[in-house]
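Lecture 7 notes. Example A: sequence first, then its structure tokens.
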Amino acid sequence: MQIASKTLHSFREQLIVAVLVVFALLFGFSAYIYSQISSISGINKEIVSVARDIPYEFSQVHVLLLKQEEILSALHDGLITAPEANDQSGELSKSLDDEFAKISSFQGSLLNSRWSAEREKKLFEQADSGLVFTKKSKSDFEQKFINFLAAFEQNDAASQMKLLSEAREIALSAYSRIDFLNKEFSQAADVYFLTAEGATDNLLRVSFIFFIIILLIISAVSSSIILRTAYSLKSILEGIGQFHAGRFRHKIVLKSKNEFGMIAESLNEAVVNLDKSLDEAKKLSRLVESSMEGIAVTDTEGVIQYVNPAWEKLTGWKSEEIVGKVTPRVLKSGKQNQEFYEKLWKTIKSGKIFRAEFINKRKDRSLYDADEVIMPLIGPDGKINSFAAFQRDITDQKRADRERQELNGSREAFIRNTAHGLRTPLSAIGYTFEILMDKVSELPPWTHQFLVGAREHYAWMRDILENFIFIQELTVDYFRRKDAKVSPRAELSAITDHTRWFAGSKNITFEWFNKDIPETLPIDRAAFIFTVKQLLDNALIFTRPHGKITFATYQEDNMLVLESSDTGVGIPKDDQPHIFTSFFRGRNAYEMKNVGMGIGLYLVKMIAEGYGGDVSFHSTEGKGSTFIVRFPLMKRE
């Protein structure tokens, strides 16, 4: 319904815009008609003015010619002197030239007119012939004036009378010609006025007819649009009613491809997607309802809005008891402090997920351990509109962990106490072997072989015991000791010297390449020595006589690298994934009757990673192995 209302509102706006456009067009058309009429009226006034101004200027020419004749009469009658007559005649001549110039300018207006070219051409020719005639009359009159002055100086009365009569005839002839022009131009002015009125009337009639045609076209188009729009809106509203009733298989059918057709297609597509979303929502709802984890949804203020059956079973609270009424504080046991809850709210309100272990309280006030995940739910506006909490009962798991920790603690204590208890008698045995080896020359010959074998077994038991004790020490706190420090150059020199001597006794070549060894390394001395000895001892054990061991130490990427390569028996491909597993021994180790327990490389990996380093290797069976251990040069935080 809202979509239909918005569509109708949009249609009304479009209709209003269309009406405004129509009125704007009509206003523009009216303004154009008014401008055309004004233009016709202006031209009419201009032409009529010209048609009336030209006769007026010719009348002025006739007046000036009469004044010239009056000057001659006044000179003849002795009213003025000859110089005065000459001056006055000169002024009149200039006035005549000015009038002739005005008449010429009016002739130009006739030629620039937008009216009938034939009519203006005829008037122009008449004005031009009149102008030529009056100019000739002026010239003849000036000549008569000059002759009259000469006769006046000679006191020739007869010549003066004759010239005066001829001057009057020139003025009379000019008057006749000018009177004819006045009549012609007056008639032309009347014709112009009537023609302009007729043009204006015709323009108004054509404009009115055109205006009626525009209105009819606009009415027809508007009616068609309104009818089509009404039909489209009716179909859309009926379809929305069907959708509102839950009949999502209904489709709005509109053949038009206009905006309403697009709206109908969009609605049909939206309803199909909505139907699919509802199916998915139902599946999700069934999944949530059947989930083994307790799920609760709250609003942004923490008020519970939904809980699933698993949550009810876990807490003992029923949905109708808490939804819309209480917050998850009903589960608060007091085992978590205020700082814990402040961190929780700060995390989820910032849009992040909070996960922690809680000790909660059921409705019957019994306590249980829960692993909870609380996450914010984001609305369409991109803002948090609710929170979802998922909790799993881990009470049994926590109890089993505590029991396992107690058992491990007892076992570790037993191993630790046993190992330390065995260290003293083993040390005594070792001292005894050393004393006996010093006195071997005094003992029977067969005892030498026996003592050598017994001492090797003693050394094996001692190494096992030391490894057990070392494993007990490798805890998190061991790797975080701030005073851990070793001088790698001195320790490497001592270990490699011993390895070189022992390799020589087995006819094995040993080489050590060292470069940029740091003065100190933030690693416990015992752990560093154990790592280096383990790498080189393994190379010595699994390299046959005439083989070669290469040991390299260098810096790379702020790391000290220990790289041990040998040409020994290598590691079978099937054994390589397990090489760092505790108590694992490869197949060829058994074949060579190696007495190791398979925890050396396991401890090397633990030490390297404990200090922020790493360990890697590559090996080919029958060709040898290369082990690489890397320790950071700076202590990690």
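Example B, a different protein, same format:
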Amino acid sequence: MATPYLDIQNLTKSIGDLVLFENISFSVSEGQHVGLIARNGAGKSTLLGLIAGKDSADSGDIVFQKGLRVGMLEQQPDFDPEMSVLQAVAGRLRAEYASLLIAEEGGELQSHTATFDADEEWNDIQLRAKQILTQLKIDKLDKPVGLLSGGQRKRVALASVLIANPDLLILDEPTNHLDVEMIEWLEKYLQRNTKALLLVTHDRYFLDRVCQTIVELDDRTAYTYRGNYAYYLEKRDERIATTNANIDRARNLYRKELDWMRRQPQARGHKSRSRKEAFYELEQQAQLEQQARRRTEERAARLNVKAGYIGSKIFEAEYVSKAFDDGVVILKDFYYNFSRFEKMGIVGNNGTGKTTFIRMLLGEVPPTSGRFVIGETVKFGYFSQEGMPVDEQMKVIDVVRRVAETVDLGGGRHLTAMQFLNHFLFPPARQQDYVYKLSGGERRRLQLCLVLMQAPNFLILDEPTNDLDIATLQLLEEYLADFRGCVIVVSHDRYFMDRVVDHLLVFRGQGEVEDFPGNYSQYREFRELKEKEEVREQRDRNSAAEGRKPVLEGSDRKRKLTFKEKQEYEALGRDIEALEAEKAQLHEALASGQLSVEEITAHSKRLPLLDEELDEKSMRWLELSEWA
């Protein structure tokens, strides 16, 4: 069996009276890509802090392979705001190379002095930093870090970790604040990376395509699923069904024992003492299992909240233009008439003006010209990236009750503030905690509840998936699917967009906005087809410029394959078919949950090589197919 790079052994951690996890165990081996899933407040960030040596566990061990180089991307990267981008990356890397975060066997991450030729090593670091930053599209290397956007700072932090090329890469929410284009680049980079990876992310497409093993923290326990995210969903449902079946059997046995205990009160003293003790143990077990079942059912319940009445007039953008003094153009004569019950997504690279558009719609930022005409019945509910300010010295339930005591479900049905919070994964005990005790994700979830409880009929969600766990995202998706109102979502989460919106506004920059009738996956397919067509047209233009007449569809004059090219074309077809079959077998095996760690490692190393070979052969086959 392969020696794990990272081995978590019977780890327990509590914060006060709250037990986050108890006796959890899992490992990350060479080449293995592991995704860590848990609801907010279950201890994901705490666990990563333990791995990084920033805190200590109550019991258990964290064991690293001796000599292991570890790179960690934190959720909130910390840089000196006065330093330039290149200084921030290269300076951090120089510290890492001088003190390589070597992990001693059986110990925490520790710093050790490394000896190297400073000038030569420094030149190599600078060169690699520039190369990676170019791929991450950060070209202003002399710009102070303090002037960068959140997404740009995240890219700088990514660069500093990726350039180090560690044996084990630990990424905490790497897609937060990145635009979709950058997420897709990172996704492909990690797919081809054969190094070990421990990943925490809410991006389900990213998780599904990058990781072959899922570890779920749930009810203080770690469950390991040897497959991708789709496999995890299937097996988790099976686990819950099995748990519920066991609960039903325990309840049936408990009812029988209870009936036995109640019979013939006058003879109770003669009953078997051991059987009575067994009954009390069974009673306690039945209560605990019933509580676990109730939590599962509460998470699965759908919440159909009645939205306020909204008329036929929503809003109309009348030839709106917006430009800034530095020459950045957000909109140019933009016209749009928003329809009733419409659910629209907004996508685009960072800096193209998505949030500015939202703020103009809300009246927070004036347009340069044109105007937004808002319907009289429209009541906005805005969930911003910064969230609503919340008094940290108040209890969670009191914060919500300040907004509303009840939520109208329609048809005379209502939910109390406590019931509403319970649905959004705040159990009664957590509702009595003060806000300052909540995790970052829990605070974000509380802010979402405050927006929804105001009963808006037009929801505007700006990057709503940042810091929210997958369980909360599933609840929000179901809420929006049932929501009888209008929705605008600005998000980099492709899975979320596919589930929620019915068409897109694509911000391309410099005032260019495209209206696409479909979700993000459909837009991505359309974009890829369009790019292929543009490549074909460019090739024809190049042929014409070189004096060769491009071959038109249906033309009688057509270049023929030579004998060798025909043989190559036929061989490529067979090779591609075999490679695709091998790729399908590897994906099926990785998702089966039946592989050993050594087999997972071997398959994970083979997949990126297979993709490169397929790409190369497919491009050559397409080239020859023009004349076949």
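Note on Example B: DSSP finds 18 helices and 21 strands in the chain. Residues 96-118, 296-301 have pLDDT under 50 and may be disordered.
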